[in-house]
Amino acid sequence: MKKSGKYNRILVTAALPYTNGYTHIGHVAGSFLPADMYARYSRLAGYDIIFICGSDEYGTAIALAAIKEGLSTQEIIDKYHFANKKAYEELGLSFDIYSRTSNPTHAKTAQDFFLNLYNKKLLYKKTEKQLYSEKEKRFLADRFVVGTCPICGFEEATGDECENCGSALSPLQLIDPKSKLTGDTPVIKETVSYYFPLKDYQAKLEKWLDSKTDWKPNVINYCKGWFKTGLQDRSITRELEWGVPVPIEGEEGKVIYIWFEAPIGYISMTKELFAQKGEPEKWKEYWQSDDTKLVNFLGKDNIIFHAIFFPAMLMAHSDFVLADNVPANEFMNLEGSKQSKSKGHAILLKDAVEKFNPDSIRYAIASNMPENKDTDFYWVDLQAKNNNELGAILGNFVNRAFVFNEKYFGGKVPVLGSLEEIDKNIINSLKSYVERIASYYENYKFKDAVSETMNLVRDANKYFNDTEPWKVVKEDEARCGTILNICLQLCNTFAILFDPVLPFTSAKILNMLNVSTENLKWDKAYELTLPGGHKLNAPEILFKKIEDHEIEK
RNA sequence: GCCGGAGUAGCUCAGGUGGUUAGAGCGUCGGAAUCAUAAUCCGCAGGUCGGGGGUUCAAGUCCCUCCUCCGGUACCA
User: Fold this and answer.
1) Spatial distance from the CA of A226 to the C1' of B63 (Å)
2) Pick from A57, A171, A375, A440: CA 20 to 30 A from residue A244's CA?
3) CA–C1' gap, A471 and B32, in angstroms
């Protein structure tokens, strides 16, 4: 297997989607698509790589979603888990496993992790006063308490902050507190929590992050902000029914805090993956050797958990690898404003894949990925990218080459004759394209990778125009054959280079070329692998035009 | 409020450590071509880089200030 720097294998994760609703394309832009493109590229490049993801299914918000929808928590997570999983498949996300945190393996793994820290006496107990709703029979999370702000008198302050005066509040400070959900007046009740001593890990975390010179500045800056304020210890248990039970006698009724438990899902799902493969010990290779490159893809809302909290947990446990990188994206907004599930202003992935070519969706998102700042998704952009780029540039090149070849060379690859300057130029440019695009993927620059790949297709169209095979065929058939040979070889190159972003199209091109997926190797992308006389399959249209009425809702 | 990010061509976006006439794609307009899903190729035009002030020989880039938008602010995830 190929090495990636000092590493012998790569472990890619995409942030576990929370199962209280349908995934929208903002989630795709934030973590799923970059993770998938990276995973696909890494496979082509020949690395030993696994790609892990699954549904995050516990916690307060699931319990609330259940109340709102009038379903049980199990029904809620089943509803969204299976719907989302299906949509991911239709989008071509190539997870090696897509599991869920409600699986028993996960509970066991999370409990073992908790006990490991507990037995090392790293955790401590603290008694606190919290608001408890008798009617709802549960403690209320800070932001699910509303009341009057003690500072400015604003009547709709929540238990975490007052959005009128901006003060940070605690629920106990609120005057006349009520449950946001039911309007019930809560009572003050004592509860015991287990705390993780995050404060003790600040110095180690700072040192660790200082060594990460190749991380995105947005991630580093975000962490520095937290260090400046000073990290505080965090409660890692909740008085809640819906979660992984705290594995200590006498603590019935407590569950492990979701943000302690969920990232452990990456580990438990890796265990499941190898258990399914009949190699139950092999997950250790990925999590317990220093030569594993762990890369966590996520949106900016998750930075705190993946760059500070989870690494601190891993440091405390000490048996597992820490992330090599945490390439966080910003957000993809919709037509100028933030996507929100609750406000109905969002493009749900399940709806999008039903209506449009998944590769068109992938391309539209990838070419406008929020790598450095929030970006906007517009339906007219999807249409324009599909019609003017995918169809007109890529689809058209493949089509004109195949149709021409069918007409004049009977659908067989013509023999490559002697090369002229113009042929050598484009052939010789391939290797640098392949290397440049690889380097973009290696450095998490997905937008650059995609646009540079399309640039090669532009060069190909120019080559076709400049060599004018429709004229040459009338005077010099052998020369024309050489030109078409090169054009068809280029189609093979596109199939490889576009696989990370357009996997379905890539498979179609390979099928048209009548070559096996064995050819999907990054280093084959600059080689002329099609032998003269090779029989091709009939061409098909790669991208249908999207008409105006199709993007009007 | 505090911390962090963003504001660059009609549109969507690039522009480490300040350095020649500020870039790309798409769109517009003009031309070439007719193999191809009227799809391609070439060329032109288009920007006082959010406002104002400052440092510097030199500022999209550094400093100050103001405006707008976004994220976080530790029990939503």
Assistant:
1) 25
2) A171
3) 15
pLDDT digits (tens, 9 = 90+) for A231-242: 999 999 998 889
Protein CA at A242 to nucleotide C1' at B59, angstroms: 56
Same-domain check for residues A395 and A279: no
**Domain, as residue range, for A436:** 379-551
The Cα A491–Cα A449 span in angstroms is 18
Bases of chain B within 7 A of a CB of the protein: 1-7, 11-15, 24-27, 32-37, 39-42, 70-77
Angle subtended by helix axes A503-513 and A396-409, to nearest 10? 10
Nucleotide showing the shortest C1' distance to residue A231 CA: B74
Residue A406: nearest nucleotide (C-alpha to C1'): B35
- Closest nucleotide to A165's CA, by C1' atom? B1
How far in angstroms lies nucleotide B2's C1' from the CA of residue A165? 12
- pLDDT score of A49 more than 90: yes
CA of A287 to C1' of B60 (A): 44
Q: Are residues A423 and A505 in the same domain?
A: yes
Percent of chain A with pLDDT over 90: 68
Task: Quote the CA–CA distance of A237 and A261 in Å, as a whole number.
Answer: 10
- What is the spatial distance, in angstroms and rounded to an integer, between the CA atom of A544 and the C1' atom of B29? 28
Rounded to 5 degrees, φ, ψ at A51 are: -125, 115
Provide the pairing of β-strand A187-196 with A124-133: antiparallel
Question: What integer is the mean pLDDT of A225-230?
Answer: 84
Give helix then strand counts, H and E, for chain A: 22, 17
d(CA A330, CA A338): 12
Nucleotide nearest to A222 (CA to C1'): B4
Nearest 5°: the CA angle A241, A236, A165 is 95
CATH of the domain at A39: 3.40.50.620
Nearest nucleotide (CA of A309 to C1'): B74
Q: Is residue A245 a part of any domain in this protein? A: no
Identify whether residues A331 and A426 lie together within a single domain: no
Take residue A235 and report the two structure tokens written for it.
């409660």
**A344/B51 CA-to-C1' distance in Å:** 35
3-class DSSP state for residue A306? helix
Chain segment A72-96, per-residue pLDDT in tens = 999 999 999 999 999 999 999 999 9
* Nearest protein residue by Cα to C1' of nucleotide B77: A18
Nucleotide with C1' nearest the A468 CA: B35
**Distances A365 to A31, A349, A377, A417, A553 between C-alpha atoms, Å:** 11, 12, 8, 41, 19
Answer whether residue A196 is part of any domain: no
Residue with tokens 């993007």, as numbered in its chain: A551
CA of A386 to C1' of B44 (A): 27
* Separation of alpha carbons A513 and A398, rounded Å: 10
Domain identity same for A324 and A449 = no
User: Which value does ipTM take for this structure?
Assistant: 0.91
